Amino acid sequence: MRRVMSLGIIALGCVGLAVVYMTRQVAANGSGIVKPFTAAVNEVKFNSNGVAGHKETYVVAFRADGSNVTDYHRTLSNGQTTEVKMVEDVKNGRRVAVDYATESTSTYLLPSNYSAMMAKQASACSATAASSEPPILGYRVVLVHDGHTYGNGASNVNDHWKAPELNCFALRRVEFATRKPGESAPHNEAEVANIVLGEPDPTLFSIPQNFVERSPSERHAEFERRFGLRAPTPPQADDVYFSSRKQ
Fold first, then answer.
1. Does this model's pTM top 0.85?
2. pLDDT tens string 214-244
């Protein structure tokens, strides 16, 4: 149970370090409007032997202006249910990590070219040739394969089944990551369970006004203080946080 308690705080610590795949796949269409919808996602993490481990269901939702949220509900070892979410507010140009366990927020500024970046991703997906992949939830999908090998030999390989009708949102993902060449790689699999079209519940985007703004390391320290469990800060998390706030 110690690992379950730390999942939310560690996940939020990574906000800003890398683009979150399920949400970063969505972009403005040709008219500059995002199709609003809410998706329930099932995700399973497998170890290097292919044995399923942690499983969870979370919600990803998009507004017509491109604002989006990824919302997790998790159970702590004391039986308390808590919530962690990442809210991207396009109108106000900010990305906010909200951690209910520590009553904290960590706020990042969205890059000035954010809309252009998203539009480029959408164009690439929409221009993909006709797909032979079977539909997912009734939506046509195109399989996009990518990967990268780093200087130290570590690599990642990703397969994303994207739906052009849903602004290139990935309805299924399979992602492998290795630390050195030739090793058996753990991987994650995620698939959307259902899609509800239309503007999402506004409460998903709510950010408690009484929460304290904290850097990732401050938030992790508060988690340790409240729960007595170690919550290491991911490398460079604070650098990304403070760098974003200087934009």
1. no
2. 999 999 999 999 988 777 888 889 999 999 8
Tokens, residue 71: 């919302």
Q: Which residue has the tokens 């006709």?
A: 130
d(CA 140, CA 236): 38
In 3D space, the residue among 34, 151, 182, 9 whose CA is nearest the CA of residue 85 turns out to be: 9
pLDDT in tens, 94-130: 999 999 999 999 999 998 887 777 666 666 677 665 6
Tallying the residues shown for the chain, one arrives at 247
* Cβ–Cβ < 8 Å for 100, 80: no
Residue among 218, 3, 207, 198 at smallest CA distance from 86: 207
Q: What secondary structure, in 3-state letters, does the chain show?
A: CHHHHHHHHHHHHCECCECCHHHHCCCCCCCCCCCCEEEEEEEEEECCCCCEEEEEEEEEEECCCCCEEEEEEEECCCCCEEEEEEEEECCCCEEEEEECCCCEEEEEECCCCHHHHHHHHHHHHHCCCCCCCCCECCECCEEEEEEEECCCCCEEEEEEEEEHHHCCEEEEEEEEEECCCCCCCCEEEEEEEEEEECCCCHHHHCCCCCCEECCHHHHHHHHHHHHCCCCCCCCCHHHHHHHHCCC
132, two tokens: 């032979």
Cα(114)–Cα(162) distance, integer angstroms: 20
